Amino acid sequence: MLIEIAHAMLPFLPCCALPPHPHTCTSTKRDVFPKSDLTSNGYVGDFYPLCSDLPPHHHLREGATYRLLGASSAPQLHSGDGASWENNPESPRLALDVSSPLYELLCAPNANNGGECTYPAKVVLGSTLDYSAPLAQSLSEYIPIVRTVCVSPPGSRPVYYEYVCAPCVKAAFFSDAKRVIRGSVHGDNVVDDAMCADPRTGVAGGACCLPG
Fold it and tell me: pTM of the predicted model, to two decimals?
């Protein structure tokens, strides 16, 4: 099967291991097509699961990992975001309710200090979170995957965590491809940055467009 390593793994790929060189190596601009492994008997990523096979709401399941970002809401391990995400007030940011099971783990309140959040640098879910409560259940149903989440205790500044997706691979060719748009949609239906995507992966969502 022809595969490529998912974007979430880009920061972990060795790119320029040699001393500084006039040629800049930018991982996000690499050739994204499959690469043979060192044995020439397979491809890099052959032993990783397919991203399309990850279970629903895997960000809430046992083993899901979150890393502390601090005051910045810009994800660091997801390619193609960064400053554009941070500087765009319309970029959605999921604020966890204080009753959320995930909020409790990321806040990690100190019982000896009035319940103030301690904000661990890294949080790994020891079990799948129970979102059976009506409000929590509605959130888990409508948010299939997250990038960053906001922990905002009353009277305190918001603190952000980034979800670290487990390494997985994407098929270079797949069936039932859907057209997705990353850029703008103009009045004449001309779009920027349109591409094909696998509908079985959480890479896009629905959007409403005003006529004209």
Answer: 0.72
